[in-house]
Amino acid sequence: MKKFTSIKDITDINELLTLAKNLKKKPFEFKSFGANKTLGLLFFNPSLRTRLSTQKAAMNLGMQVMVMNINADGWQMELEDGTVMNTGSQEHIKEAAAVISQYCDIIGIRTFASLRDKVGDYEEEVLNKFIKYALVPVISLESAILHPLQSFADLITIDAVKTKIKPKVVLTWAPHPKALPQAVANSFVEWMRNSNVDLVIANPEGFDLAPQFTAGVKVLHNQDEALMDADFVYAKNWSSYTDYGKIGMALEHWMITGEKMELTDNGKFMHCLPVRRNVVVSDGVIDSENSLVLQQANNRTYAAQAVLLKLLQDEK
Ligand code: CP
């Protein structure tokens, strides 16, 4: 593995899953593997789980970690080639990526969607430019359209909890007052399509995800119908892909409540967090024993650790 930006970068999902499960049992088995190696984590956007779990993963492998909030603490970055940089931006991504590569053996980068430029977002403009100019492997800490470390942790969670060979997994849109990217949802669909689950997506009309991710997946615009007999309910808001970046109005009834969970087969509740309580999900559901949100957060460490270990192993 030379980079980790989507499921397409891994050759064997089951091998990576087994590695993560083994690391969860023995987190320090490869404690010396990352000795004298440095992980750099660059955040263009806020983070709690990704930031801390990826640092913990690297520390479990004996790596050193440097973290930078690049928007707040770095120079304003120029992305375009050939720009006369005589106004705003002070540092070109070409130098920035190559310079950071002088200090780090692996670089993680978080760069959210603009939600203004659909083409630029879906071409992963910032991430791909960074990869182009970096001299070391790059991992996505959530990009404009994907969040693979989250989806891998979600897969680890489902694998650990499932009681059926092929559980029914429902990804359901949920309300939110602000425009959010489609990254978590796109990525979850990508990983579930490559796993042995019966995946159904529920979202209101006008909120279908990009066809490149959902081709062949059952999409329902009736949430109750989708939730029927579900084993796992993964709630997430995303803004419109078709009317790009627009939020849903008067859709509060899409919130996941105890009544909705009654439709499921004793379904487990999942969310990547952070979550707006009593907007996305009721207190009763997220605080119930069927809520897996803390397991998901815990598994972020082992997802990141498996990916970092693979990159270190493949570098040797
Ligand atoms: N789920 C997730 O990526 O959380 P953070 O945004 O806090 O990193």
TrEMBL record:
Provide the taxonomic classification.
Answer: Bacteria, Pseudomonadati, Bacteroidota, Flavobacteriia, Flavobacteriales
Identification of the protein by name: N-succinylornithine carbamoyltransferase
Kindly state which reaction or reactions the protein catalyses: N(2)-succinyl-L-ornithine + carbamoyl phosphate = N(2)-succinyl-L-citrulline + phosphate + H(+)
The answer on whether this UniProt entry bears the keyword Thylakoid reads no
Q: Under which pathway is this protein filed? A: Amino-acid biosynthesis; L-arginine biosynthesis
Whose protein is this, by species? Answer: Putridiphycobacter roseus
Q: Which UniProt keywords apply?
A: Amino-acid biosynthesis, Arginine biosynthesis, Transferase
Q: Does the keyword Transferase apply?
A: yes
Q: What is its EC number?
A: 2.1.3.11
List ligand-binding residues for carbamoyl phosphate. S47, L48, R49, T50, W75, R110, H147, P148, L149, Q150, C272, L273, R300
Picking any one GO molecular function of the record gives: ornithine carbamoyltransferase activity
User: From what superkingdom does this record's organism come?
Assistant: Bacteria
Quaternary structure annotation from Swiss-Prot or TrEMBL: Homotrimer.
